[in-house]
Write a structure and sequence with these properties.
By secondary structure, the protein is mainly alpha-helical. The chain has helices spanning 21-30, 35-40, 56-72, 78-89, 94-106, 115-126, 130-147, 152-158, 164-172, 175-179, 184-194, 200-214, 218-228, 234-240, 246-253. It is built from 15 helices and no strands. Helix 3 (56-72) crosses helix 5 (94-106) and helix 5 (94-106) runs parallel beside helix 7 (130-147).
Length: 255
């Protein structure tokens, strides 16, 4: 494996992008606040979160428009984008994190093995709610793992972290690969490692991963659930069996 990237001073030499891009993104977000969205924003989280209160469709358009601008200016290479992502993430606003993670995903063709340390750093330093965790991990980190499968071993190390978001990330990173039928033995191993986790959001995370795996591997996931249901928290169990046929769901729910 390559050496871990040092991003304590994030990519300063690549600060060739228009210096006002981040400030203009923030200005557009501040000017797009929807009061109804703002008032309901915090309802979805148990943690305290920072939100402008911008509709997701508007955030997506801002992300797309500025990425197009960067592309047209020849300034959308990975190193430049990662620098901008780091700048956006430092604000802690959910909408800015969404834009950062969307931009990071759009340069996925340029990913190298060394980028794992960047993504791990982002989870450790900037992810502080389930929405940030899932937005980053479902797409960006999930794609990385499909491109560089040996790094699934790093996800297994995340399961042992004191950081609840790394533990959730270890599972939700595999949601989309699981939907494709990939990595089933590793999915079961990660589920074993998280099986009795005390954190509700981690429980939901690995339950979701199992649910997606069941779409391609119904019998295997059913057998796994039946084997472990006495220990598996009910939250995880309910998520895992959500797409089971009714008869198998009934068997899985039997005490």
């Amino acid at each position: 494996m390559p050496e871990k990237q040092d991003i304590s001073k994030p990519l300063i030499k690549y600060k060739t992008v228009q210096t006002d891009v981040v400030s203009r993104v923030r200005k557009d977000l501040a000017g797009s606040v929807d009061e109804k969205t703002k008032n309901s924003c915090c309802r979805f989280f148990k943690e305290e979160v920072k939100c402008y209160g911008v509709k997701s469709s508007a955030v997506g358009k801002i992300a797309k428009d500025y990425l197009k601008e960067l592309n047209n200016a020849g300034q959308a290479d990975k190193k430049n984008i990662f620098f901008l992502c780091e700048e956006l993430l430092q604000s802690d606003y959910c909408e800015e994190a969404y834009i950062a993670f969307e931009w990071a995903y759009q340069v996925r063709a340029e990913y190298t093995e060394a980028d794992f340390s960047v993504f791990e750093h982002w989870v450790e330093k900037y992810v502080n709610n389930w929405a940030k965790c899932d937005t980053l991990c479902n797409h960006t980190v999930g794609f990385f793992i499909e491109k560089f499968p040996p790094y699934i071993e790093n996800l297994k190390l995340w399961t042992q972290s004191d950081n609840r978001w790394l533990r959730r990330a270890s599972a939700v990173t595999l949601v989309l690969p699981a939907r494709k039928g990939l990595f089933l033995p590793d999915i079961f191993e990660i589920s074993d490692l998280l099986l009795t986790d005390k954190d509700d959001l981690v429980r939901k995370g690995y339950g979701w991963m199992l649910k997606e795996a069941s779409k391609s591997h119904l019998q295997e996931v059913f057998d796994y659930v039946m084997k472990n249901k006495k220990e598996m928290p009910r939250t995880s169990l309910r998520y895992a069996i959500e797409k089971f046929p009714e008869d198998l769901r009934a068997k899985a729910m039997e005490k």
